[in-house]
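Sanity check

After download, print the first record. It should look like this:
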Amino acid sequence: MLIRIVRMTFHPERIPEFLALFQQSENQIRNMPGCRFLELWQDIHEPTVYCTHSHWDSEDQLNAYRKSALFGQVWPATKALFAGPPLAFSVQPATLPPHSAPAL
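Expected C-alpha cells:
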C-alpha cells in the first residue's frame, strides 16, 4: 500500500472554488482503480493550507491516475488556485524490528 499526501496552499479568496472542485471530483477519484481511501484535511493553524490524503494499492495505480483524463482536468484547475508550490510525497507504513524484552 502507498499513502499519498499532497499539501497545497491556496489564495484565501480561491478556497471556495477549490472546495467545490474537490466535492465535484472526490467520488470519481475514489473510484479510480487502486484508490482505497481519500480524504481532505485542513491545517488547524494555517486555514489556507489543505492536504489530500489517499491510499493506493500501488505506485503504478497512483501513476495511472496521474496519467488519466480525470487528473488532467482536476490538477490544472486546482493548481490555478495555489498561492504557492504544492508539496507531494508518498509513504508507506514503517516496518519496525521485533521488540525484545530487556535481559533480566
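If your output differs, re-run the checksum step. Summary of this record's structure: The two ends are 39 Å apart (CA to CA).
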